[in-house]
Amino acid sequence: MFATLSDRLADTFKNLRGKGRLSEADIDATAREIRIALLEADVALPVVREFVAAIKERARGEEVSGALNPAQQVIKIVNEELVAILGGETRRLRYAKTGPTVIMLAGLQGAGKTTLAAKLALWLKEQGKTPMLVACDLQRPNAVNQLQVNGERVGVPVFAPEPGNGVGDPVSVARASVEEAKRKLHDVVIVDTAGRLGVDAELMQQAADIRDAIAPDEVLFVVDAMIGQDAVTTAQAFLDGVGFDGVVLTKLDGDARGGAALSIASVTGRPVMFASNGEKMTDFDLFHPDRMASRILD
Ligand code: GDP
């Protein structure tokens, strides 16, 4: 991810090398190139505008520092702004003070929620937690089964409605799962919810009802990094319809241009918390905005 953006920015900064001091024209030219680089990476236009304006303002106002040449100064500013957009400090999970920590996943169908649920469960297990997975995606016929298969792969129990036994009410399943977790002393509950191909009112209502029923400690919006220009609309719809505390980016191993990550974090003001980067259950980790920014500017 971010390969093109990274190359483009490297070219931009090359042009600044050897300059003694940045002129107004240098700053304008650099800002223009950063703008093009971001647009080509599918960053949403309002986000690009804001980003470039911030860079320009800071580049003009920056004291000439003895330690850094102009190119390095611009890189430093871009780096800091990238980190800020992506959420600043690495945002860690907030655990409940008493009782099980409830994590609810929301997102479009195909975003990678079900896979992610199991990856997150494994990650938590490796940190000594005793998670339980909950199948509340009762829309997609195979989703419950897929979660069960994934749960088995990572050795984490799955709470699911009995086949033929009142299937169809994800809110009751979610509520019952938290009780079950308390009984069986699971300290984290991960609730997989239904996703549709597009944003729709019924899906949002169902997710909002589940949220109201179980009062999650964290709602995570799971989004495919390849989503491109649709990212902002989709993220905004989930923010308005369900609300979320953090973003999980999936399929970072693909050739996504990366703009979705920047746009979503900027427009929603929610940090990217986790990254999923492959089909293996271990292809998953905390997202570190500073490391990602350094990679982009490498
Ligand atoms: P859901 O509909 O949101 O539950 O999505 P799934 O978990 O079923 O994932 C949809 C497809 O994306 C599946 O084929 C997954 O194997 C694949 N997938 C999920 N996460 C990743 C990832 O990080 N990288 C890659 N390459 N594929 C992924």
TrEMBL record:
For the keyword Ribonucleoprotein, the answer is yes
Domain named SRP54-type proteins GTP-binding: residues: 271-284
Domain notes, please? Composed of three domains: the N-terminal N domain, which is responsible for interactions with the ribosome, the central G domain, which binds GTP, and the C-terminal M domain, which binds the RNA and the signal sequence of the RNC.
> Tell me, how does this one assemble?
Part of the signal recognition particle protein translocation system, which is composed of SRP and FtsY.
The function of this protein is: Involved in targeting and insertion of nascent membrane proteins into the cytoplasmic membrane. Binds to the hydrophobic signal sequence of the ribosome-nascent chain (RNC) as it emerges from the ribosomes. The SRP-RNC complex is then targeted to the cytoplasmic membrane where it interacts with the SRP receptor FtsY.
User: Where along the chain is GTP bound?
Assistant: 107-114, 192-196, 250-253
Principal localization reads cytoplasm
Instruction: Give coiled-coil spans as residue ranges.
Output: none
Task: Give the keywords, sorted.
Answer: Cytoplasm, GTP-binding, Hydrolase, Nucleotide-binding, Ribonucleoprotein, RNA-binding, Signal recognition particle
User: Which reactions appear under catalytic activity for this entry?
Assistant: GTP + H2O = GDP + phosphate + H(+)
Q: Which family does it belong to?
A: Belongs to the GTP-binding SRP family. SRP54 subfamily.
Q: Which residues of the full protein are shown?
A: 1 to 298 of 521
Question: Is this entry keyworded Repressor?
Answer: no
- Where in the cell does this protein reside? Cytoplasm
Identify this protein by name.
Answer: Signal recognition particle protein
